[in-house]
Design a protein that fits this description.
2 helices; mainly beta; about 180 residues; Jelly Rolls; globular; 5-stranded antiparallel beta sheet
Length: about 180
Amino acid sequence: MPFFETGFEGLAVYEPRIFHDDRGYFFESFNQNVFVDAGHTMAWVQDNQARSSYGVIRGLHFQHEPHAQTKLIRALEGTILDVVVDMRKGSTTYGKVFTIELSASNKRQLLVPKGFAHGYSVLSEKAEIFYKCDNFYHKESEGGIRFDDPALDIDWKVPRATAVLSPKDLILPLLAEAINHFV
């Protein structure tokens, strides 16, 4: 099975089988039958792609219901530290952080269910990220939590002095203060 559990309900790492030969490689980055066989039945409606330079930190973002999104994230170029925080009140992993390096070379993908805040830092000179969503972006439903919330103690693997963040991300609330209706 190409899925590896993370200890967080619904959060899974997808590691596709890669076929190498003298021409290069081939792999299925997504096959609906493989996902359905593993119990992941979401229907993707939107693809997003972003390119960033070393030291960029994006997040931690989510969308409120009814516009919450499940995401399938991968790096097309470079390496990122992908970071998620469980925001589902009542979950045994509520407020806990999961991190994983996703890269063009390891081809791993992270399946992030609704109810998680998501972000990443760029660890390589450049990184290009691609992710699928099972719900459309809805600006009025944007939410987020601070990347440097002391209660989360996230090591973004980027020195704070060289980190690049958007003004919007710098003023997000702490987890304890964030509006959150995920259960």
